[in-house]
Amino acid sequence: MTVEYSKKKEGTYEDIIRQAEALVDNTLEKYTNLSNILSLLKYNLNLFWAGMYWVSGDELKLGPFQGRVACTKIKRGKGACGKAAEEAKTVILKNVLKFPAYIACHSETKSEIVVPGMIGKEVVFVIDLDSRKYNYFDETDEFYLSKVADIMVKVLN
Ligand code: SME
Fold first, then answer.
1. Cβ atoms of residues 65 and 84 within 8 Å
2. How buried is 1 (Cβ within 10 angstroms: 0-12 exposed, 13-18 middle, 19+ buried)?
3. Taking the model in full, what pTM does it have?
């Protein structure tokens, strides 16, 4: 990725974060605010799919999302989402086909990033973003998406 492209990406995320903070309205349902934030991510980053999974015991359950119908339940530890939830760490798959435990909800997805949303030391959800392009996500996405996750955590409080 060129320096120019990465700078452009930073600007895009700064806009997303500004808009997300402006859109959150605590007189609305939590799902409304979260859906709006996911819409900002999907359309500003040109993604195939953008969603959240709630961590609930040994399972992850599909939360709000923007895009096609997706897997509704994932076992903790399985797939990119289950791994991010289990390890409380961001997972970046540059090429999903090279990740043996990958759970393919959509054949269009070529790369993916999963970022945990934490309350204290507990992972309460993961943000899952899918791209139609290989190598779409990197550390810049990880950095800004952890800020987006913090905005989502505030929505839940
Ligand atoms: N690919 C994910 C499953 C969720 S879908 O991409 C929406 C995974 O491996 O956990």
1. no
2. exposed
3. 0.95
Query: What's the gap in Å between 80 CA and the centre of ligand 1?
Result: 6
Return d(Cα 109, Cα 98) in angstroms, integer: 13
Residue 2 Cα to ligand 1 middle (Å): 28
Report the amino acid identity of residue 12: T
Which of these, 58, 86, 94, lies nearest to 73 by C-alpha position?
58
**pLDDT tens, position by position, 7-31:** 699 999 999 999 999 999 999 999 9
CA-proximal residue: ligand 1, atom 5 (nearest): 105
Q: What pairs with residue 58 in β-bridges?
A: none
Of 76, 92, 112, which is best to mutate to test ligand 1, by the most ligand atoms within 8 angstroms of its C-beta? 112
pLDDT 10s digits, 78-136: 999 999 999 999 999 999 999 988 999 889 999 999 999 999 999 999 999 999 999 99
Verify whether ligand 1 is closer than 6 Å to residue 153 (CB atom): no
